[in-house]
Amino acid sequence: MAQGKRIVLASRPVGEPKASDFRIENCPIPTPGPGQALLRTIWLSLDPYMRGRMSDAPSYAAPVPIGGVMEGGTVSEVIASNNPAFAKGDVVLSRAGWQTHALSDGQGLTKIDPKIAPVSTAVGVLGMPGMTAYTGLLEIGKPQPGETLVVAAASGAVGSAVGQIAKIKGARAVGVAGGKDKCDYVKNELGFDDCLDHRDPELAAKLREACPKGIDVYFENVGGAVFEAVFPLLNPFARVPVCGLIAHYNDTDAKPPKWAASMMRAVLTKRLAIRGFIVSDFAARRADFLREMSGWVREGKVKYKEFVTEGLDSAPAAFIGLLKGANFGKQLVRVGPDRQ
Amino acid sequence: MAQGKRIVLASRPVGEPKASDFRIENCPIPTPGPGQALLRTIWLSLDPYMRGRMSDAPSYAAPVPIGGVMEGGTVSEVIASNNPAFAKGDVVLSRAGWQTHALSDGQGLTKIDPKIAPVSTAVGVLGMPGMTAYTGLLEIGKPQPGETLVVAAASGAVGSAVGQIAKIKGARAVGVAGGKDKCDYVKNELGFDDCLDHRDPELAAKLREACPKGIDVYFENVGGAVFEAVFPLLNPFARVPVCGLIAHYNDTDAKPPKWAASMMRAVLTKRLAIRGFIVSDFAARRADFLREMSGWVREGKVKYKEFVTEGLDSAPAAFIGLLKGANFGKQLVRVGPDRQ
């Protein structure tokens, strides 16, 4: 019987995930039953939210069980099908997880048209990260012409789209990213007005200089030192969509951050709006997102960068690196070829 | 020359305001110049926000200068007028402050119709506190039928209106107040579903019992122990309008509260919306507020209670008491008779 491979959660990480928290298993490639399609993974998307699924702390989604296949969005090819809605050769967006093959009853599968854009964008700029940027920014952040937006992880899948959409809406976009190469890319390629290195010990002072009129929208995807630098610069009526806190995902202690003592006072006196969201909260905006975002990508108004590691086995190390900002662009794992 | 009286800010309080932070001064009653009206104060409203005006920490409004008359809303009678818009005998809503008499050029004065309701309601249920409750609850809190709302200072001017409006909107209203008498009043007179004593050492556990389906709207006007008890009970998609933090107004240290470490994580995983506001942010809703609220008051759906101290001299002690919850209902100072 042909062999496939899968990566399961071996243990719940304490702090930073380690390679030993994952286990690579060989397994038989399953045979589709009635109504089922067999999928072969082409691209596996790695995203920071997966750190939450490895933990059993209460969250908006159930954790991956110990021994369970790690969750994740994939771009997959249908290689056999007993489901009339999907034909052999179809390329689909799936939540097949960290494995080479998966069965699907068709629920939650979406066909991808390879003519519109490279199929990998279905888990990137035209997928979950792009839609996270689009909905959080436009539904909560609501940047207005002349306002200032700040976003961290600005060269990443979400942050890069956030800043570029803010620019389209007429706002000033200031990014924060890790290191000179990323900052240069964010400024020179993506067209942000400025980009600061979060490792700079003078981050707070430099951010103040880069935002002479204060900050009207802070798209929160990291927390930590960036939020501390941002917080005093927030203008009255600033909006803070919160979609991630990557700087804290590996936290093991629970010391209150420095800003916390004054946080609610600032919420009151500055009339701040702080609101958490996940992309599925705005599922109703999917058609708008796809129409607008694919238009912007086509017109070159929204650019994206992919950071690819090769082979399913590379996923654990790539994911551990992602949480440290070792990626430069949307983190993808090339699990199989586009066409067999 | 006839003598009036005023209360000025003698010094900026450190922590709790003391009587010596105020100074009572005699002063001549002024004579109105061209275009001016002379006002005689009938009612002075005392409200927690005034603690903020005594401090020079950055806020949404400038502080009262040392030696300046304490700010405050009043119901006043026009006793002389060189302004064609206001006639002797008119009763007006004014921001005349803590004094027996004031000049006005007519800016910001609003005539009060004494036939609609007792004129004192213009600084209470039909005034700033009522409109704070109405706008914050309906514009940010948005209680839905069957949802659970919690509000502290539930027998006070804002809290009492918040809970009653939530009931009108079909929500379950749970109050928090200081002591058995207030709690009984909130339950039996105002019709809240429950009311808990914030001094109860078992507050957190009792709140959990009183909110078996969690909390969907927390109208934040106190902070402190109530917020700590509320925070873990907030449901996904809960809304937290923040209009006051009375428990913290006298804070002199800035120790991060216990909940702060997990706050942003909860914002993210529960998709909370936390938003500060002050009543003037929703000035455009004033006509709606007056129409709806006066209707509810007339129909007995919104009840209110006034807590009156006699004479301008009583204002400092009454205000110090207000910050400690010594009042029972809307705190008013009777500065002069309804009619001279």
Layout of strands and helices, then pairs:
The structure is a homodimer of 340-residue chains.
Chain A: E1 3-9, E2 22-28, E3 37-45, H1 50-53, E4 74-81, E5 91-94, E6 101-104, E7 110-111, H2 128-141, E8 148-151, H3 157-168, E9 172-177, H4 180-189, E10 194-197, H5 203-210, E11 215-219, H6 224-230, E12 234-242, H7 260-269, E13 273-276, H8 286-298, E14 306-310, H9 315-323, E15 330-334
Parallel strand pairs in A: 8-9, 8-11, 9-10, 11-12, 12-13, 14-15
Antiparallel strand pairs in A: 1-2, 3-4, 3-6, 3-15, 4-5, 5-7
The total of helices of chain A stands at 9
Specify Rg of chain A, calculated over alpha carbons.
20 Å
- Please give the CATH architecture of the largest domain in chain A: 3-Layer(aba) Sandwich
- DSSP, total strands of chain A: 15
Oligomer: homodimer
Our estimate of the beta-strand percent of chain A is: 15-25%
Main sheet properties of chain A: 7 strands, mixed
Largest interface pair: A-B, 38 and 38 residues
CATH topology of the largest domain in chain A: Rossmann fold
Top-tier CATH class of the largest domain in chain A: Alpha Beta
Structural class of chain A comes to alpha/beta
Walk me through the structure:
The structure is a homodimer of 340-residue chains. Chain A is an alpha/beta fold. Chain A has 2 domains: 3-123 and 304-334, Quinone Oxidoreductase, Chain A, domain 1 (Alpha-Beta Complex); 128-283 and 290-296, NAD(P)-binding Rossmann-like Domain (Rossmann fold). Chain A is built from 9 helices and 15 strands. Chain A has helices spanning 50-53, 128-141, 157-168, 180-189, 203-210, 224-230, 260-269, 286-298, 315-323; strands spanning 3-9, 22-28, 37-45, 74-81, 91-94, 101-104, 110-111, 148-151, 172-177, 194-197, 215-219, 234-242, 273-276, 306-310, 330-334. In chain A, strands 3, 4, 5, 6, 7, 14 and 15 form a 7-stranded mixed sheet that branches. In chain A, helix 2 packs across helix 3 (157-168) and helix 2 (128-141) crosses helix 8 (286-298). Chain A is globular and about 60 Å long. The mean pLDDT of chain A is 93. Chain A binds chain B through residues 52, 58-60, 220, 223, 227, 236, 242-245, 248, 254-258, 260-278, 281, and chain B through 52, 58-60, 220, 223, 227, 236, 242-245, 248, 254-258, 260-278, 281. Strand 13 (273-276) of chain A pairs antiparallel with strand 13 (273-276) of chain B.
